Amino acid sequence: MEQERTSWQAETSRTNHILGFLVRRMERIMASVDDILVLVSAERGQIDSLVALTGSIKARLDEALAGALSPAVQAKVDEIFKDVTDNSSAIVKAINANTDTPPAPAPAPAPESGQAPVADTTQT
Question: Where do the structural domains in the chain lie, given as residue ranges?
């Protein structure tokens, strides 16, 4: 009877240890996901601001200089803003193409002596 109780207590302790490990692991994963979401949202805001700024500057210059520039100078201004727009597009494409995936979680710590290893099921 006493041996069964000791065995049950040992198994309960091991189960609690595993559950604690899993909870800590899940908390780290969720914190990483939250951090990534904040960064992506900030990047999107910066990209949108850059695109809006470029369009606003172009519209203001077009309005202020309407008819005041020679065709040759107007062509140069148009070329400048085409390049700025192209650069903005290139920035967006580079960010989208080179966004790293988050690193894989660290391997599970080695089990304490006398315990079987726990399978890592956090990766998908």
Answer: 2-97
pLDDT digits (tens, 9 = 90+) for 72-95: 888 888 888 888 888 878 887 887
At residue 36's C-alpha, the angle toward residues 34 and 42, to 5°, is 105
Work out the number of other CB atoms within 10 angstroms of the CB of residue 88: 16
Instruction: Give me the count of residues in the chain.
Output: 124
DSSP letter (8 states) at residue 117: P
For the chain, give the mean pLDDT.
77
Tens digit of each residue's pLDDT (9 = 90 or more) over 13-25: 888 889 888 888 8
Q: Which amino acid is at 114?
A: G
Classify burial at 9, counting beta carbons within 10 Å of its beta carbon; exposed 0-12, middle 13-18, buried 19 or more. exposed
What is the pTM assigned to this prediction?
Answer: 0.38
The number of beta carbons lying within 10 Å of the beta carbon of residue 82 is 11
* 23 CA to centre of own chain: 22
Residue 96 corresponds to which amino acid?
A: N
**End-to-end CA separation in angstroms for the chain:** 43
124 or 56, which is more confident?
A: 56
